[in-house]
Amino acid sequence: MFTIGQMARRTGVKIPTIRYYEQMGLMTAPERSQGNQRRYTKTELDRLGFIKHARDLGLSLDAIRDLIRLNAHPETPCAEADRIADEHLASVRDRIRRLQRLESELSRIASSCKAGTVKDCYVIRALSDHTLCEDDH
Amino acid sequence: MFTIGQMARRTGVKIPTIRYYEQMGLMTAPERSQGNQRRYTKTELDRLGFIKHARDLGLSLDAIRDLIRLNAHPETPCAEADRIADEHLASVRDRIRRLQRLESELSRIASSCKAGTVKDCYVIRALSDHTLCEDDH
DNA sequence: TCTTGAAGCTATAGTCGCTAGAGACATTAT
DNA sequence: ATAATGTCTCTAGCGACTATAGCTTCAAGA
C-alpha cells in the first residue's frame, strides 16, 4: 500500500495532480485509511505510471481515458489503440511543421536589429508589418 | 472610425478576443459612439494587427505587452525588443526539439501492433512500460 | 503515552488565452 | 416603422493543472 506522497515520488506526478486525475475519472478512487487518507495498490501505481508516460508523450486526458477503457477490455481488437496513437502522431507532426515555419521567421526577426533605439527597431517593424514575412501564416 | 466588427474582419481577431485584449490592457479603451459602441481609429487597427501577428508567432500576451510598452518609448534602446524575440526563439527551438523526440518515440509505437486484441497490444504495453523507450524524457 | 512535525484532507480560486451564451440595446437598410 | 444585423455587458466554461487556507492524521522520538 502506498500513500499519495509515495505515489507522487515514484511516478513524478504531483500530489494535487493525482487527486485531480481521480476527480477526472482517470484514477479510480482508492481505498482509504481509517483516518480517510488514500492508500494505493501496486496496480494503481502502475496505472499512474501509464498516465504519466502518456502525458509526457503529449496525449490528452481524453485520449488516455480511452486507452484505459480499452485496456480494461482485453478482448477488444487493438485497432482502436493504434488509431489513437496514430492520430496523435499526426498532430505532433503537424505541430512540428508549424513550429518550424515559425522558427524560420523568428530567427530572421530576432537578433537582426542594428538600430540603436526602438524607433527603427527591425523586431518591432517586422511584428507590425506582416508584408515583411516570407510565408503566410 | 471602425466598429469592432470591422476591426475583427480586417485583422482576423474575433470580436470577443478584441474585448478581451482591451480588458487585459493590450488595447487601450477606444472612443464610444453615442450608443456606447466601440469606435476605433486607424492607429488602434494597426496595434491590433501587431498583436495578431505577434500572437500568430506564439508570443505570450505578456511579451506583447512588453513590446507595446517599448514601442511607446521610441528612444529606448532596442536591445530589450531583441531580447524578447531571442528568448522566444529559444523556447520555440526547445519545443521543436522536444516534439521531435516525441515523434520518433510515437512513430515507433504507432501502427506497430500486430496483435489482434488489446491484451497483447504493443501500443498499450509501450505506454505502460517506460523501459521500452529509446530515450528518456 | 505524549508531543511534534511532516504529510494528508477538502474546498475553493487562480492560471492562460480565449470562446460561448444570455438577454438587452444600437445601428442600418428597406 | 420595422426588420435584420451588430454590439453591449456579464457570466461561465475550456484543459490541465497549481496554489492557498484551514483543518486532520500519521509516524517517530522522548
Q: Which key terms come to mind for this protein?
A:
homodimer, 137 residues, mainly alpha, Multidrug-efflux Transporter Regulator, Chain: A, Domain 2, 2 domains, 6 helices, 3% strand, DNA-binding
Your description of this structure?
- The model of chain A has no long low-confidence stretch (mean pLDDT 81).
- Chain A folds into 2 domains: 4-75, Multidrug-efflux Transporter Regulator, Chain: A, Domain 2; 81-132.
- Chain A is built from 6 helices and 2 strands.
- Chain A has helices spanning 4-11, 15-23, 42-56, 61-71, 79-109, 122-128; strands spanning 31-32, 38-39.
- The longest helix of chain A has 31 residues, at 79-109.
- Chain A is mostly helical and 137 residues long.
- In chain A, strands 1-2 form a two-stranded antiparallel ribbon.
- At the A-B interface, α3, α4, α5 and α6 of A face α3, α4, α5 and α6 of B.
- The structure holds a DNA duplex (30 and 30 nucleotides).
Which sequence of SSEs, written as H and E, runs from N to C of chain A? HHEEHHHH
Oligomer: homodimer
Low-pLDDT residue spans of chain A: none
Task: Supply the CATH architecture of the largest domain in chain A.
Answer: Orthogonal Bundle
| CATH third-tier fold name of the largest domain in chain A | Multidrug-efflux Transporter Regulator, Chain: A, Domain 2
Number of DSSP-assigned strands of chain A:
2
